Amino acid sequence: MVDDGAPVISDVPANQYAQAQAGEGGFAILSIGTPTVTDACAPGLTATGTRSDGRALNAAWPSGTTTVTWSATDPCGNVSLAYTTVTVNPTNTMDFQVAWSGTGFSGSMSRSLSLTMFGGLGTQTRTATANASNGNAAFSVTDLPVDTYTCATIEDSARSLRRRVSVSDAGVNWSATGALVSGDIINDEVIDVLDWGAYVVRNANADLNGDGVINTTDGNLILANFGLRGDSVCGGSFTDPPAPRTEVSVSDLVAMGLPELAGADLNGDGWVDGRDMDMFQN
Ligand SMILES: [Ca+2]
Ligand SMILES: [Ca+2]
Ligand SMILES: [Ca+2]
Ligand SMILES: [Ca+2]
């Protein structure tokens, strides 16, 4: 047989960069394809791929860099080689979908969220800025350590109760979906007279639906959710939020560091309570 020169390997799969996938324990599942081989005297010649980790070509890829060596050998014994690397970052991503309770959302609003994500190895905490459209937001946390996540808490730090939700394996990423109960302006995980007072004195966080004004649409949401309490943190020991207050004295407000809420004592009797709420509503 005439030595016609070495095989030519073309269309070598590009180097790949991926993230470890949900539930795969630090591995990513992806297929990289195969190169094309041409050789003058050996039509149909193909390349064999050998992975540096010794696993099968279609096996999951471990964290770190794995090199695939493509090898094609023609009938004359000429060998050509090519290489593809697969680099897997040992992190997981969790995708969040969040909806705020309320009506009258207009356009977009930016909200700061507190997140915890609970897995078999421990708890991760993050903050995120969510840009919501019509009260709905989708965003991702991309830097989680590889773990099996089962639970997450989501909170609009200045406006909502904390919500605990289950986490599911959506394939490539983890997924968490939560509906936030609006109205916890004074952030103590209960919606009560303090939040109502904050609304009356036009606390900057009282625009619950993000429409740019603080009005009865926001106030009615507090009344609708009055007395509700937030969920405990995933995996943590449960601590009951305080019981909802239906009244608070002005002197207590001062002691609590909330003297500005005294402005909600509309009838001036030294208490913020149902009488003031009735007065404000009527
Ligand atoms: Ca809260
Ligand atoms: Ca509150
Ligand atoms: Ca509003
Ligand atoms: Ca009063």
Please tell me about this protein's structure:
There is one protein chain. β11 and β12 form a beta hairpin. 11% of the residues lie in helices and 37% in strands. The protein is mainly β and 282 residues long. The chain has two domains: 82 residues, Immunoglobulin-like (Sandwich); 155 residues, Immunoglobulin-like (Sandwich). The strands form four sheets. Strands 9-8-11-12-13-7-10 form a seven-stranded mixed β-sheet, with no helix packed on it. The chain has a four-stranded mixed β-sheet with strand order 2-6-5-4, with no helix packed on it. α1 packs antiparallel against α2. The radius of gyration is 29 Å and the shape is elongated. Bound molecules: calcium ion (CA) (4 copies). One calcium ion binds next to loops.
